[in-house]
UniProtKB/TrEMBL annotation:
SMART domains: EFP, Elong-fact-P_C. Its main location: cytoplasm. Residues 130-185 form the Elongation factor P C-terminal domain. Keywords: Cytoplasm, Elongation factor, Protein biosynthesis. Pathway: Protein biosynthesis; polypeptide chain elongation. Belongs to the elongation factor P family. HAMAP family: EF_P. This is Elongation factor P.
Length: 188
């Protein structure tokens, strides 16, 4: 058993007869009244995201998990195939168990979290950033821009990301996987 002081991003807990992963949390200590923890929970079975508030000191049932490195192989409809980098066993997961499937490039190594009780995969953790090639973007128009002008660009995985005007087709860019946002032009 854990308490609200143990809540952190990525923690898997049992709540309402389901297993949820904590996506966001905020400890709130108002001037009046007791402290509480506001959380955003994502169901690992359905992918549904719910908001919940736990009062301070509330006991939560955490799930013991194990992490393993897997390499992303290929998509097949809404199913994504992965290979264990240690023993080369393959598993397939549904699209809704991934946080940002549109940024997943073939060959990318991800961390998959497994429930230690039944060895069921719970969620897929992407690296903090990925490097993707821009396959289509309009040429940037100089002028009438003050600061931070962006334009839409399509990357090799099919995702659409807003990039600065100086980015052209063929450039490789670094993308934040959590927000799906442009970070910088990748150094060759």
């Amino acid at each position: 058993m854990a308490s609200t002081s143990d809540i952190r991003k990525g923690l898997c807990i049992k709540y309402n007869n389901d297993i949820y992963k904590i996506v966001e949390f905020l400890h709130v200590k108002p001037g009046k009244g007791p402290a509480f923890v506001r959380t955003k929970l994502k169901s690992v079975t359905s992918g549904k995201v719910i908001d919940n508030t736990f009062s301070a000191g509330h006991k939560i049932e955490d799930v013991r998990v194990e992490t393993r490195s897997y390499q992303y192989l290929y998509p097949e409809g809404d199913t994504f195939h992965f290979m264990n980098t240690d023993d080369y066993n393959q598993i397939s997961l549904q699209k809704d168990s991934l946080d940002s499937p549109d940024l997943l490039k073939e060959g990318e190594v991800v961390t998959i979290i497994f429930n230690t009780e039944d060895s069921m995969p719970l969620s897929v953790e992407m690296p903090a950033s990925v490097i993707l090639e821009v396959t289509h973007t309009e040429p940037g128009v100089k002028g009438n821009t003050a600061t931070n002008a962006t334009k839409p660009a399509t990357v090799e995985t099919g995702a659409r990301i807003n990039v600065p005007l100086f980015i052209n087709e063929g450039d490789k860019i670094k993308v934040d996987t959590e927000k799906g946002a442009y970070i910088e032009r990748a150094k060759e």
